């Protein structure tokens, strides 16, 4: 396979709040063109950048926007003259053009939120560039507007949100931090840990502490990022750098399932049986009648499946033994943070594992009598 057509297994991402500095953006575009595929910027410059030839104005028309560079595709929310300026901006290197980069404005049309789609091995994966102001506008927008974004593998930017969970100097947990954590969890993302602890925002006000408000959440919890303090230049925010795996085994996919031996499975079987029994198949005299019966059977199964199945995320961390009781106890612990509830959650997972593996052993030992089927399972 030629290098040009070889599947891309990872992308290198550079994310920074540039504080509306044209010179900084210009420097980033030129200096990072060989080392990065995606640049996510927060608070970019957005003003007059040049004159364009005009048929009505001899001096030319003003071109309002962000810096451009021949090697980077500038992706930004279109604006009208009186619209507020965008506060997020994405550059995709032309090396990624074969991944068909697209901004998903049909899902979110917001100046503080960008959803970048990349076509990867048959599916679009999605990366979110976020700027959330001191009022937590972007965090609140995403948490209050249910937006079904499939295959999200990255969410990063300037969240303007402190918490002892990621900022050692923070003294309390604000509601915005709780909302952000719940938002990431709903997208099945885990907060990335930096390779070394450091503030990401350096305050110019002497009485204000430096803080950690620039964050990355991603689909794989083992992917860390770098806080590149030495490269912040005139900005008061340090850039975040990440090598993000985009192989299929790192990506979360959604599917509908019907858990085995569950109440939902029983309801599905009952509903299908009831509707099939009520189906009149006594007078099939033509091809059209047979087609009608076939379509009715298909509709029965389809509607019963959609009624009783549920949507789950399939990730590289998914466990076959996980059951609803595990989910309930985990949610309780996340809500209370009580050690007693943590012990209850651990007990629930141990019981679920024991039940699952006992059933697996019994099935192999008594049903198919193929003990060697245990080998792959034991090795996991």
UniProtKB/TrEMBL annotation:
UniProt domain Endonuclease/exonuclease/phosphatase: residue ranges: 129-240
MF (Gene Ontology): catalytic activity
Highest taxon of the lineage: Eukaryota
Stored SUPFAM superfamilies: DNase I-like
Name of the protein in its database record: Endonuclease/exonuclease/phosphatase domain-containing protein
Naturally occurring in which organism (per UniProt): Leucocoprinus leucothites
């Amino acid at each position: 396979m030629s290098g040009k057509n070889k599947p891309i297994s990872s992308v290198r991402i550079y994310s920074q709040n540039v504080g509306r500095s044209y010179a900084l953006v210009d420097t980033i575009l030129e200096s990072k063109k060989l080392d990065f595929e995606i640049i996510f910027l927060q608070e970019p410059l957005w003003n007059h950048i040049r004159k364009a030839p005009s048929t009505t104005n001899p001096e030319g028309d003003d071109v309002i926007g962000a810096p451009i560079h021949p090697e980077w595709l500038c992706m930004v929310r279109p604006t009208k003259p009186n619209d507020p300026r965008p506060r997020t901006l994405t550059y995709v290197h032309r090396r990624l053009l074969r991944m068909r980069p697209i901004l998903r404005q049909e899902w979110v049309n917001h100046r503080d939120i960008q959803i970048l789609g990349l076509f990867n091995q048959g599916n679009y994966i999605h990366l979110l560039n976020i700027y959330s102001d001191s009022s937590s506008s972007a965090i609140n927008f995403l948490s209050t507007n249910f937006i079904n974004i499939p295959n999200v593998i990255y969410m990063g930017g300037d969240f303007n949100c402190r918490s002892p969970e990621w900022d050692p100097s923070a003294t309390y947990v604000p509601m915005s931090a709780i909302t952000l954590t719940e938002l990431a969890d709903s997208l099945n993302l885990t907060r990335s840990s930096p390779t070394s602890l450091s503030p990401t925002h350096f305050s110019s006000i002497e009485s204000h502490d430096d803080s950690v408000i620039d964050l990355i959440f991603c689909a794989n919890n083992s992917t860390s990022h770098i806080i590149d303090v030495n490269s912040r230049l005139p900005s008061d925010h340090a850039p975040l750098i990440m090598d993000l795996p985009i192989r299929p085994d790192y990506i979360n996919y959604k599917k509908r399932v019907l858990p085995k031996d569950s109440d939902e499975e029983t309801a599905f079987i009952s509903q299908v049986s009831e509707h099939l029994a009520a189906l009149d198949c006594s007078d099939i005299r033509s091809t059209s009648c047979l087609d009608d019966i076939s379509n009715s059977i298909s509709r029965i199964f389809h509607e019963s499946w959609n009624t009783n199945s549920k949507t789950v995320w399939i990730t590289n961390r998914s466990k076959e033994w996980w059951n609803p009781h595990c989910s309930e106890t985990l949610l309780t612990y996340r809500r209370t943070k009580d050690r007693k509830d943590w012990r209850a959650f651990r007990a629930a997972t141990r019981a679920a594992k024991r039940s699952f593996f006992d059933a697996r052993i019994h099935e192999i030992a008594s049903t198919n009598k193929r003990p060697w089927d245990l080998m792959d399972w034991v090795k996991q």
